[in-house]
Structures are given as structure tokens and as C-alpha cells.
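User: Okay, second chain of the day. Same drill as before: sequence in, C-alpha cells out.
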Amino acid sequence: MAMRNFFNEIRGMKVTDVPKHVKPMVTTSNAKNFIQKSLDNYHAKYIQTDSIMPLYHVCFGGMIFSYLVALPEERLVHTKCGVTIFHNC
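Assistant: Same drill. C-alpha cells below.
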């Protein structure tokens, strides 16, 4: 809902006016407040209700993180060896 309101606000603006409109909204205090509010909502929704979902979030987050960390190295090996899909270096 907030994103829709934001896009409706900037829809009629010129591109040069958008940074002047957005800059006061993007501050460190606003970011800290947003993160704190998000963590409080997560704690109320999952931690206080003894849900198993945080365990899933950690597992899937770990898998995604490890994939993203290994991806550049795999790409480097493939480009260095000139390997196609079915060949090993």
C-alpha cells in the first residue's frame, strides 16, 4: 500500500524532481526505524508464537547465501577452462 502511494506521488513528476522528493524520506533514522519495526513484527509473528518458520527461514537463507557465494567461483572456473555444460575441467 505504501509503495502504491509512493508511485502515485512520483508518477506526475519530472525525472529531475524525483531525487528532491525522495531524499528527505531516505535517512538513516528512517532506515533504523523501519528495520526495528520489521524485527519487532517478525518477533511477534514467529518467535512469540513458537512457530517453526524461523528454522525454515534460516535453512533456506543459508542455502541461498551459500549458492550466491559459490556462484562467482564456479563462473570463474567455467570461463577459465572454456568448459561447456557437460565437460569437467
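The chain has a mean pLDDT of 88.

User: Thanks, on to the next one.
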